[in-house]
Amino acid sequence: MKICSFLPSATEILFALGLEDSIFGVTFECNYPPAARAKRVVVNAKIPPGLSAAEIDTAVAGYVARGESIYKIDAEALREIQPDLIVTQDLCHVCAASSDDLAAILDAYLPNCKVLSLNPHVLDEVWSDILMVGDAAGRRPQAEDLVAGIRARMEKLRRESAGQPRPRVLFLEWLDPPYVGGHWVPEMVALAGGEDVLGVSAKPSFRVSWGQALETQPDVVIVAPCGYDESQARAELNQFQFPAGWENLPAVRGGHVFPVDAQSYFARPGPRLSEGAELLSIIFSSLLTAQPK
What we know:
The chain is of the alpha/beta class. The protein has helices at 8-16, 53-65, 75-81, 99-109, 123-136, 140-161, 185-191, 210-215, 230-239, 250-253, 262-265, 273-290; strands at 3-5, 23-27, 41-45, 71-73, 85-89, 114-118, 168-175, 178-180, 195-196, 206-207, 220-223, 257-259. The chain starts with a strand and ends with a helix.
């Protein structure tokens, strides 16, 4: 079977199911596991590199307003590969190429190609998508084993956080302008023992004002710009000019502002979301042990 992945999380799932030799095309963002970088890139971004957070937001908004995709699919590469299966998504047109981007290419070059679209909104749907990929690629037993292990880890987190004080958590998915995490992120915060003060489970991330963010008076701030790794998030945090009142937040006064690797552990709906929840648990647990008795 020849498989092309149109989103990094699908690439991670395919590798986790032992399908490395079946992957013939990936996106420019597919960087995990490292072997994914050796695969042929069949999806690129139209937005140039090196833009600031505000410039990226403006560029994305422009494409969306015009009804255009921010991704460019290499139709010639797909014609040469002739994949049997393409894994894509319709959840977020900013996160990855969608089925709509693919429609014309399928009609012209790939009439017999199967397309699997992943659209998870909560953790259970992410785990269900792993099973769907396993079904489509002939790896159902491997998918079931992977999901069983993930569910056991998440249940362990749930048990460990039960009955503990729950810090108020502001999860920032973007800084300029500010967005708060949605979909599975509030659920991850809750599993890890926190209370997400603005995000809404199963709903998309959304823009807020700095006034709204400051009013929440969070105990913890997680800085997780979508698509950024930890070093990029830290750089963004260090250079960003926060509004007046930021310095008075309990989280800032207590030194509880944490840049994290959103690219690996929060933004991509794949197996490593379990590691993201575990990372949050470590952060929240460290706050509890640091509190005076």
